[in-house]
Design goal:
Helices cover about 50% and strands about 10% of the residues. The radius of gyration is 21 Å and the shape is elongated. It starts with 11 loop residues before the first helix and ends with a helix. A six-stranded mixed β-sheet has the order 3-2-1-4-5-6, sandwiched between helices. It contains twelve helices and six strands. The protein has two domains: about 70 residues, 434 Repressor (Amino-terminal Domain) (Orthogonal Bundle), CATH 1.10.260.40; about 180 residues, Endonuclease, Chain A. With about 280 residues, the protein is an alpha/beta fold. A hairpin with a 5-residue loop joins β4 and β5.
């Protein structure tokens, strides 16, 4: 049988189709057998698997139930339905919710895991004003921030290590009250027993190893995973050969960044309006 080969990196639709086909193959089912279990036609299954038809929320939820995949396909399906969320990110979020250690570096804005609802809403509203996303997509972004933060409230709690470029705390977002509450949130975050917060000052210059946001996860089995993104594309990396150099660079970044005490002091100075 001739089968259309898909590049899962080419688009969220292709990634979903490839995963659905792989899960079906692992169970030894034909498209017709999967269609009977799901209550869809074989033609419909084929169209989704080959990327010709995007999965609806109902389709994704039904596939999860039939294939016994929890809500993984539904989360991945969100990337197809909501283009404002970069490719690869919904799947990353699923792993983040189970990671033992989370390391992240952000430039320009406070990362989602640390955002207040008002700060997150302001970023989303600004994107709508620019015509970059729709109001529905803005709501999706804000909801995703809340879900990610909620997933961290578990036992044992993950170790979360954050390095912020200095631009994150000095770039004003929204009214003064929004920024004040956000900076206060950072100070509270730094005081938690399972977190480390550092600022990478402008003075680091070329010693800064990353120019774009980067996330590195250590999963419960000690395997590594990374996620990096540009303006238009996100990439989830599972191969340790590529993730280990990122982890090494992250350690170098931490060594060059300010200590947590010095970082909190800088944040407090910004709150007071001092340079």
């Amino acid at each position: 049988m001739n089968r259309k080969e898909l590049d899962p990196e080419s688009s969220p639709v292709a990634a979903f189709g490839e995963r659905l086909r792989r899960l079906r193959d692992e169970r030894g089912w034909t498209q017709d057998e999967l269609s009977e279990r799901m209550g869809y036609s074989g033609t419909h299954i084929s169209a989704v698997e080959t990327g010709r038809r995007p999965p609806t929320r109902r389709f994704s939820a039904r596939a999860d139930k039939v294939l016994g995949t929890g809500d993984r396909l539904e989360r991945q399906g969100q990337a197809v339905r909501h283009s404002a969320i970069l490719e690869g990110f919904p799947e990353y979020v699923g792993h983040e919710a189970q990671a033992a250690e989370i390391r992240l570096y952000e430039v320009g804005v406070i990362p989602g895991l640390l955002q207040t609802p008002e700060y997150a809403a302001q970023l989303a509203e600004s994107a709508v004003d620019r015509g970059a996303i729709t109001p529905d997509q803005a709501s999706e972004r804000v909801d995703l921030v809340a879900k990610r933060q909620a997933s961290l409230i578990r036992t044992p709690a993950p170790l979360v290590l954050v390095v912020l470029d200095e631009s994150c705390i000095r770039r004003p977002i929204g009214e003064a009250a929004v920024m004040e509450a956000q900076l206060a949130r950072l100070v509270e975050f730094a005081a938690l027993p399972t977190t480390v917060l550092q600022v990478a000052p402008f003075g680091m210059g070329a010693r800064r190893p990353f120019d774009l946001p980067i996330y590195v996860l250590t999963l419960g089995n000690r395997s590594l995973m990374s996620y990096a993104e540009s303006t238009q594309r996100g990439h989830l990396e599972r191969e340790s050969t590529f993730v280990l150099p990122m982890l090494t660079a992250y350690h170098q970044l931490q060594a060059e960044a300010m200590s947590q005490a010095a970082s909190v002091a800088m944040i407090q100075e910004v709150r007071k309006g001092t340079p």
